[in-house]
Specification:
By secondary structure, the protein is mainly alpha-helical. The chain contains 10 helices and no strands. Helix 8 crosses helix 9. The radius of gyration is 19 Å and the shape is globular.
C-alpha cells in the first residue's frame, strides 16, 4: 500500500476526519529523503480507519465482487499478511506448523477466525488493483507502455507468494515445506539474466 494514492480512494470526500488526517500526513512529503517505514506506518493507520468507515461500500460493488471471483490467490495472500502481522513480521519459516503447513481444516479455521483482518487486506489489494488499472488505462490512451515488475528474488517469501497464485495454497505449502531447496531453485530460475 506504500504506492496507493489515499486522496484518490472512493468515498474519502465524504469523511472530513479522513481528509484532515491526510492533510497532516503531507509533512511526510516535505523531507529530503522518503522515510518509507514512517510513511507505511501512517498509511496503514489511516487505511484501517478508512476501511472501518467505507469498506462495506466498496465491498458491495460489482467491481469488487468481480475482482474476488477472478483472483483466487487473494484470500490466501490476505491470510498470509494477517499471519505475518500476528507473528510480528517474522519469516514464515519460523512460524508454528499450523501456520506454515495447515491442513484444510486448520486453513478454514484460520480464515474463519481472521475474517475481518483478511477482508482488510483483500480490500487493500482491490484498491491497489483499481488504481493501477486506471493508471494503465490512462497510459494506454497516451500510447505509453507500462512495464510491470514482480519482486521474485527480493525476499524469501516471494516464490511462495507467486507459486501460491499458480497452484493453490495447500499444494505449494506442502512442496515448499517438504522441500525447502525448491525455494532456492525457483529464485535462481526466475532471476533476470541482467541482474548480477
Amino acid at each position: 500500500p506504500i504506492y496507493l494514492s489515499l486522496t484518490h480512494l472512493p468515498h474519502v470526500d465524504k469523511h472530513p476526519t479522513l481528509k484532515e488526517r491526510l492533510t497532516s500526513m503531507r509533512n511526510l512529503t516535505k523531507t529530503p529523503r522518503v522515510s518509507f517505514h514512517e510513511v507505511k506506518v501512517h498509511k496503514m493507520v489511516w487505511l484501517r480507519e478508512y476501511s472501518s468507515l467505507v469498506a462495506h461500500l466498496v465491498m458491495n460493488t460489482q467491481a469488487f465482487m468481480d475482482f474476488i471471483a477472478k483472483n483466487a490467490w487473494v484470500e490466501p495472500y490476505a491470510l498470509f499478511k494477517v499471519l505475518k502481522d500476528r507473528t510480528e513480521q517474522y519469516m514464515w519459516t519460523t512460524w508454528p506448523r499450523e501456520y506454515k503447513k495447515p491442513t484444510q481444516k486448520e486453513y478454514d479455521k484460520l480464515v474463519e477466525d481472521n475474517i475481518d483482518e483478511i477482508a482488510f487486506y483483500v480490500l487493500l489489494q482491490f484498491l491497489c488493483y483499481k488504481q493501477l488499472s486506471d493508471v494503465k488505462k490512462y497510459a494506454n490512451g497516451k500510447d505509453v507502455l507500462l512495464k510491470g515488475d514482480i519482486p521474485i528474488a527480493c525476499e524469501y517469501i516471494s516464490p511462495f507468494t507467486i507459486a501460491t497464485r499458480l497452484r493453490g495454497t495447500n499444494e505449494i505449502m506442502s512442496d515448499i515445506y517438504d522441500n525447502p531447496e525448491l525455494v532456492h531453485a525457483l529464485q535462481e530460475a526466475l532471476v533476470p539474466l541482467d541482474i548480477e
